[in-house]
Amino acid sequence: MVEHARAPHNTFAAPRAVRHVLLVEDHPLFREGLAAAVDLDERFSVVAQAGSGEEALTEAARTAPDLVVMDLGLPGLSGIETSRRLVSAHPGIKIMVMTMSEEDDNLLAAIRAGARGYILKGAPQEEMLSVLDIIGQGGAAFGRHVAERLGGLFAAVGGAPAREAFPMLTAREREILDLLAGGLSYRQIAQRLFVADKTVRNHVGSIFSKLQVHDRAAAIVRARDAGLGSATTGA
């Protein structure tokens, strides 16, 4: 509850500080539309835009934003890893993930990486700005559809085996991802599973596609966030 105190007649309420925002989104048209929407709100000012994780790190160091709107499906450095690095380098920064991904593992990974909010692209503009404002004030907030399932997710995490993560993967793909997260090379995985190197690489390509990542490092980050790789020993 917000208390409204009466100010003496000879004082004025201090104007609310405008919060500086960094937008991280690899689709220029969507990013420009988002920038226009955020800039129209007097609570915010877009101070920088980035089309990749690497660019986001550079822009954050240059402009010191208060808030970051982060897409997950970035080229190169993933949105999850970018968020983690931003929070580590700038402890006061607050991140709101805005993505097309409705996957539970992405939601949990984003929260573990330090995101204070998570909203789906396509949510009403008012909802997006409200979530951003709450985060800017130091709270945590989620879009309506995300919030509906968040409680159930946290309740299930404690009892769910890590290997049940990524239900879109086949059992063999999860096994290979687990070994990748444990630090094994493609050749070591092939030797461990008694298959050809090419077979492993084919499975890895499918894993990248299903997880919507662009490289091995991003896949490993996703896997470790979900608890994979911790029990793997080298071949």
TrEMBL record:
The modification 4-aspartylphosphate is found at residue 71. InterPro entries: CheY-like_superfamily, NreC/VraR/RcsB-like_REC, Sig_transdc_resp-reg_C-effctor, Sig_transdc_resp-reg_receiver, Tscrpt_reg_LuxR_C, WalR-like. Keywords: DNA-binding, Phosphoprotein, Transcription, Transcription regulation. Pfam families: GerE, Response_reg. SUPFAM superfamilies: C-terminal effector domain of the bipartite response regulators, CheY-like. Residues 162-227 form the HTH luxR-type domain. Residues 20-136 form the Response regulatory domain. It comes from the Bacteria. This is Response regulator transcription factor. It comes from Streptomyces levis.
